[in-house]
Amino acid sequence: MPFLNWLSSVTQAVPGNAATQSLRVRILQDPYYRLQSYEEVAIAASLGFRLDVNRAGVDDWLRLPGFSIHQARTLTELTQAGIHLHSLEDIAAAINLPVQRLQPLEPVLLFCYYDPDSLHQIQRMNPNTATVEMLVRIPGIDLYLARAIVQNRKMGPYRNLIHLQRRLSLSAPLVEKLLHYLTFQ
User: Fold this and answer.
1) Whole-model pTM?
2) Domain boundaries, the chain
């Protein structure tokens, strides 16, 4: 009941016409709702929606109006490669757009810094490109498994974690350990 009380207070507390109220409810109820305009961006910002630009995936970027799949992939690949986006200007430079075009999105963009050397920061690796030495740093991967991963990828790249599990006959508990350490981008 607390969520329903909060939802009704949010929709009643902010004045607006019926269409605006309907949009607010849609944004609150659908975590994958794609914002259609800068007006919707402003409404989402007022509801507390934020996009952490250094953790956002392709689907997150595509929730914003005006983003193409190519731009979303570019930004995601940059951040996954360890490049930190510090400002609106960084995003504009990365996708070759004028900063003015991105300014209406600023209320929902969150620029957080993540220290790659922090003990609390998980360094995700791509098993299709990682060396044996890199793979053994992942909890749950010993030298034998790291060598098997590298050797088996000669048959083609791993598409995802399930594909890796099936090809190497990995146990479910081991796959659970690897879930946060592997990326297949």
Assistant:
1) 0.59
2) 49-115, 132-178
